[in-house]
Amino acid sequence: MHFLRQAIAIGALVSACSANVEPSPIAPPVDWGPLAVQAGTSGHDARADGIIRIDVRCVFLERGTERTVLVWPASQVSWDPIGAAVMFVDRQGRIRQLTNGMPVGFGGGGASEAQGGRLEDRLARVDWVKRPDPECVAPSVRFVETWSNPT
Fold first, then answer.
1. Distance between CA 64 and CA 50 in Å, rounded?
2. CB 74 within 8 A of CB 37
3. 3-class DSSP state for residue 101?
């Protein structure tokens, strides 16, 4: 009989505890749009200016006839599908809305085969949140870190 009372008490306690447990919410998937996004940062601050080019699959920095794929840090960027804009948070916490054809300036790091080594090898070491679309072919990539006013 004593065993039965303990079993009932334990059952009541488990039932009471589990009644107050709510399922943890599941975050909705993030729509990165055409952005290539990395989990971390590159740790570089070299400056690059140009024109941002945004299409349905890719975001490039265009300088003259050269295009560079832009890679964004996940903690500082989001995609606005309605405005087709990159929303980038600068070091001062301001949100910069970047749209196609806009002059831009970024601090960050880059990689290209011209600088030595295979570009694919460098990209294989990136902690990707969202890889660039395979259609986004360019001879170089730019890892965006900071915003700077274009010159």
1. 8
2. yes
3. coil
